Amino acid sequence: MFIKLMIFVVILACAGLFFVKGCDGKPLMTVEKLLEGLPSSPSDLLSREAETPATPQ
Fold first, then answer.
1. Contact 15, 26 (CB under 8 A)
2. pTM of the predicted model, to two decimals?
3. What is the pLDDT of residues 12-21, one digit of tens each?
4. Could you write out the DSSP letters of every residue in 1-57?
5. What span, in angstroms and rounded, lies between the C-alpha atoms of 33 and 1?
């Protein structure tokens, strides 16, 4: 039961960042801030060398 309570508290604390206002009146965390470092598509995760097949020589 204690583990479930701690998980709930952590989720509640993380969700609270979306509602608590900062000095500028905007929320401390937004969905845009949360997703700004992620690639737009799964193919962006591959390196350019991995996308082109090697040609036999």
1. no
2. 0.55
3. 999 999 999 9
4. -HHHHHHHHHHHHHHHTTTSB-TTSSBS--HHHHHTTS-SSGGGGS-HHHHSPPPP-
5. 33
